[in-house]
Specification:
The protein contains eleven helices and nine strands. By secondary structure, the protein is α+β, with helices and mostly antiparallel strands.
C-alpha cells in the first residue's frame, strides 16, 4: 500500500485514460512532503508515468490546485518550454481522496543539491546553466493569450497582488514575532517598481524543479505557484538560487558545485535576450526571500500543530530559524543591496 494512492480505483480510472496500460500497476513516491506529491507508476510491461496530487492532511485554501496546474502544463506542451506531456485530470475526489493528474515520465536527474551537480561534467554544467536562462527567456516570450492562459490571472499589479496574498498567509500562520518580516513588507510596499509588461511567471524557477539531460532542461516541473505578472520575479528568484563556489552560503545549492555560468553572465544573457534591464533586481531578490519566508512559516506552523502528521526526528527550531534568516536576507537586500544569508 502506498499512502496517497487508492490503487484499485485509481487503476480503473487510469485504464480509461491510457488504453494501452496493462495492470497491475506499481506506485512509488518520488517527491513529497509539504508540496504536491509526485508518484511514479509502472505497468506490467514497464511503461512508466507520473501522477501528481495534493499533499496529505490540511492545506491552505486555494493551494495545490491540480486542475490549474494541469491546465498550465497542458497549455505549454506545444511551446518552446520543455514540459512533460499530460494524459488526463481527475477531479472526482471519490477516486483518490483528492484531485490528481497524470503525465509523461521524463527520464533524467533533478539537481537537488551539489552532490547531484557534481555528477555532471563541468562542460555540461556550463551548457545547462546557459540553457536555464534561455528557457526562462522562452517562457517570458510566450503571449499567455496565444496558449490559452490569458485568463490564468490578472496581468497587472503583480507585486501588489503578491504582497497582499503572502501578507495574508503570514498573518494566518504567524506563531512568533519576526520584526524583519514586517519591516521588509513595509519597504516592499514603499519601493515597489513599476511593472513593465506581463508574462507567464513560473514562481519556483530553479534547478531543483528541472529534469535535465545532456546539458539541457528536458522538463520544467512544479507549476503550482505559476501565474501571470512581472517576469523579473522569476529572475530574482533564480538569482537567489544561483550560488557561486566559495561564497560560503547555501552550499547545498547545485550551482555551488562550480562549473556553471556566473550570476553576472546569466544576468547579462537575460538582459541581452529580452531587452529588460535588471538594474533593480535586488528588489525582486528581496521579494523572493520574503515570499519564501511566508511560505516556510505556513509549513512550519502545520508541522507545529501536527497537521503534517508525525514530525518525529525533525528539528523544528532549524525550520523556524530558516524562516527568520529568509526575512533577514530580504531586508538586507533592500537596505544595503546584499544578502546576509
Amino acid at each position: 500500500m502506498v499512502k496517497g494512492i487508492e490503487r484499485d480505483s485509481v487503476t480503473a480510472w487510469l485504464e480509461g485514460q491510457l488504453p494501452d496500460l496493462v495492470p497491475p500497476l506499481e506506485f512509488s513516491l518520488i517527491a513529497g512532503g509539504h508540496s504536491n506529491l509526485t508518484f511514479r507508476f509502472v505497468d506490467s510491461l514497464g511503461a512508466a508515468f507520473v501522477l501528481r496530487r495534493p499533499p496529505l492532511g490540511q492545506v491552505l485554501e486555494s493551494a495545490h490546485d491540480m486542475g490549474r496546474e494541469h491546465r498550465i502544463v497542458s497549455a505549454l506542451c506545444d511551446s518552446a518550454v520543455p514540459v512533460a506531456a499530460t494524459y488526463g485530470l481527475c477531479e472526482d475526489v471519490e477516486v483518490n481522496g483528492a484531485p490528481f493528474y497524470v503525465m509523461e515520465f521524463v527520464e533524467g536527474p533533478v539537481l537537488h543539491d551539489t552532490a547531484f551537480a557534481q555528477a555532471l561534467p563541468n562542460s555540461e554544467r556550463r551548457t545547462l546553466g546557459l540553457n536555464v536562462i534561455d528557457v526562462l527567456v522562452k517562457l517570458h516570450e510566450i503571449n499567455p493569450d496565444d496558449v490559452g492562459l490569458g485568463e490564468l490571472g490578472r496581468k497587472e499589479a503583480y507585486l501588489a497582488r503578491q504582497l497582499k496574498r503572502w501578507n495574508k498567509q503570514w498573518a494566518a500562520s504567524k506563531t512568533h514575532e519576526i520584526p524583519e518580516m514586517e519591516e521588509t513588507s513595509r519597504l516592499l510596499e514603499e519601493t515597489m517598481p513599476e511593472q513593465i509588461g506581463a508574462t507567464i511567471v513560473h514562481g519556483d524557477y530553479r534547478l531543483g524543479n528541472m529534469i535535465v539531460r545532456d546539458g539541457k532542461i528536458k522538463a520544467l516541473l512544479d507549476w503550482e505557484l505559476c501565474t501571470l505578472g512581472d517576469p523579473l520575479a522569476d529572475v530574482g528568484y533564480l538569482l537567489n538560487n544561483w550560488v557561486e563556489p566559495g561564497e560560503g552560503i547555501q552550499d547545498v545549492v547545485p550551482t555551488a558545485a562550480g562549473g556553471f555560468p556566473s550570476r553576472a553572465e546569466i544576468t547579462a544573457r537575460y538582459e541581452s535576450a529580452t531587452g529588460r534591464s535588471l538594474a533593480g533586481i535586488n528588489y525582486y531578490q528581496a521579494f523572493s526571500h520574503w515570499r519564501l519566508a511566508a511560505i516556510g512559516q505556513g509549513v512550519y506552523k502545520r508541522y507545529l500543530v501536527g497537521a503534517m502528521g508525525d514530525n518525529k526526528g525533525m528539528d523544528l527550531d532549524i525550520y523556524k530559524e530558516s524562516v527568520r534568516q529568509r526575512a533577514v536576507s530580504a531586508l538586507s537586500l533592500l537596505t544595503n543591496g546584499s544578502s546576509d544569508d
